[in-house]
Amino acid sequence: MRIIVNGREIEIKDDARNVLEALREVGIEIPNLCYLSETSVYGACRMCLVEVDGRDIVTSCTLQPREGMVIKTHTPKIYEMRKGILQLLLASHDGECTTCEMNGKCKLQKYAQEFGLTTNRFEKISKKTVTDTSSVIVRDNGKCILCGDCVRACDEIQGIAAIEFAYRGFEAQVVPSFEEKLENTECVLCGQCVAYCPTGALAIRNDVDKVYKAIEEGKYVIGMIAPAVRASLQEEFGLEDDVATSGRVVSLLKMIGFKKVFDVAFAADLVAYEEAHEFLERIEKGEKLPQFTSCCPGWVKFAEQYYPEYISHLSSVKSPQMALGAIIKKFYSREIGVDPKDIVLVSIMPCTAKKFEAEREEFEGDVDIVLTTRELVKVIKSTGIDIKMVDPEPFDRPYGLSSQSGLSFGKTGGVLGSVVNVINDKMSVKSVETKQLSEGVSLTTVELSNGKVVKGLAVFGLGNARKIVDALKNGEMEADVVEVMACNYGCIGGGGQPYPNDVRTRARRAKLLKEVQSIDVLISPTENFHMHQLYEKYLEKPLSHASHEVIHTHYKHRKRVQEDEIDILPLPEESEDKVKVSVCLGTSCYSKGSYEILEKLISAANKEEWAKNLEIKGTFCVENCGKSPNVVVNDIIVSEATVEKVKEVAINELSGKKGDSKVSKSNV
């Protein structure tokens, strides 16, 4: 398709989603603050305005290209309109740039500089701000520009909807339901809201000071670096072709006081090896299948909350971070003669949920501090040392050797591929075929030498994971093993990775990890000599009692919203004919109309005979978000509720007839 852009004829893809995307592909980046290619088009910021056919000025993100259309991306009128939009945003923006997490990376700051905004014609306006530091994700609504990127990422990509718009006009905010703290919601701490937030309204809890304090106190500080971290560091410091990036980071960390630095990819080899044996045992016994990977803590929390019936299907092998942490504290401390209490283990991860994982009660004491890639970048820059000039050092032995399989854990499909490699070494694989089923879902079919066929799914994005798990539950799909990564493209797209963290950046990181960092003489985990030594010395063999004691764990059903019901319209006196009606006011149900149902039920209870014995309560989650809005009548969940549906069930309960108990609060 050919169109005219700024007086020049250019060719664009026929299937371009919109003009913004089409022009981006040919090197014209139109300013925008609310556009995400993975989600629905929002069109709220109005920064991406273009002139069409010399007449209309419209948003390019909502404009479908057509043959011969004439576009102008930068006219005096458009320039002034964009400038005015920026000034309005800046008038109500926090403006504390020097202490902001996004200073130097902020899109609002970038555009303000590019448009030369050194003064503002609008007066500074103060609005209600909310600061929440209760979890590893820090919220500061004073920096929010209501672009909606976090809301759409959480809802449309991850399928969780832990945050949503509230209030109207100038009072508008992005908050969890009833302004609850994030730690008390269904948030899985994947950090995708942080990854896409352009202004720092959502950030990561900074734990760098804890590291320096440990060094200052003379603790034996040990670092360990995840595979996905090195790919984004290459991008951040312009080291795209440097195969020694990880070695330079090892050297720099030792300069500032780290005693040892290990490679998490070693633990990835160990986890893949153990997990493959666990899978083969389950296949042999024909139980707890499909086996789900458990390397991703965002996915694990998601499964604990939404699919408790599949908790036993999760691999019991710890994630590489927690497995290596346990090994260092239990075994390596003996070898170096240091009390585990004096070791401070610092894990450097691409992921916000890894901070949460290290603080889970099951893993207490295994890993002391988790820094994200963003925090590591700050550490490196604060030293004033040019990392390009640092001579690389190898990771310390014995936990510094890894295979290509271990390194591949950093991107989607890596865990499944590693397990397949181990199976191949154990049983011999006749053929492996992988095909893409949809964006974020691939199927690998493995034919073993004995003729048995094993099907493995690799899934990224929790929205995709929900669809796949539901399909498996309903018998619409079949699989023996399923790898799930919460973030798109896997760990390279983790919430702790540097900004920008969009589709194009993630694809580039995956390429770097595959072509530059994953070049290794070892192919499979089974070739890792130091891993086998670890078994000989301490773990005995895969799935042994010793192995279970150290590198296996268990998970449990985790209630999504930690809140009691609240009385809204209690009966003035107890009645045998009472029917309790609890309206879910959680984010997902609230956004789909549960509050309107609540208002109508209150009105009915005050005016209509059938409703006089309703005791109305508010609840914050019935764990049935896929069929919102939900109302619980006594113990019966009314899914996709309307007042009419609630009335029908309530009247049945009042008359002593039992409703359909197939879906009830006790068995969801």
Tell me about this structure.
By secondary structure, the protein is an alpha/beta fold. Helix content is about 35%, strand content about 15%. The chain has 22 helices and 24 strands. The strands form six sheets. A five-stranded mixed sheet has the order 2-1-5-3-4, with no helix packed on it. A five-stranded mixed sheet has the order 13-19-18-17-16, with helices on both faces. A five-stranded mixed sheet has the order 20-22-21-23-24, covered by helices on one side. Helix 9 packs across helix 15. The longest helix is centred in the middle third of the chain and has 22 residues, at about 265-285. It is globular and about 75 Å long. The model is unreliable at about 655-668 (pLDDT under 50).
